[in-house]
Amino acid sequence: MYTILAGQGVVQISGEEYALQPGSLVFIPGDAPHGLRNTGNEVLHRLYVFAVDSLDQVTYKRPE
Questions:
Q1: CA–CA dist 36, 20 (Å, integer)
Q2: N or C: which end of the chain has fewer CB within 10 A?
Q3: How many percent of the chain have pLDDT more than 90?
């Protein structure tokens, strides 16, 4: 899950794109290919949370 703290961006989840701005909250389903890019003029700050017990359980799947 991402929470956008500052900046503008776009997240791609399983081929679909969604615009982001401060306050946006994004849920990313497990095993969904996803990516994030900055589309603004300032730094894109995000807070992300993983629903796992350890970062060893996190696997990234980037969009093709």
A1: 9
A2: C
A3: 58
Q: How many other β-carbons are positioned within 10 Å of the β-carbon of residue 32?
A: 14
Number of other CB atoms surrounding residue 4 within 10 Å: 20
Per the rule left: phi > 0, alpha: psi between -120 and 50, beta: everything else, 23 is left
Domain boundaries, given as residue ranges, for the chain: 2-57
Three-state DSSP class for 45?
strand
Q: Using alpha carbons, select from 21, 11, 62 the residue that is nearest to residue 45.
A: 21
What confidence tens digit (pLDDT) does each residue in 30-56 have? 888 889 999 999 999 999 887 778 878
Measured from the Cβ of residue 36, the count of other Cβ atoms closer than 10 Å reads 17
**pTM for this model (two decimals):** 0.76
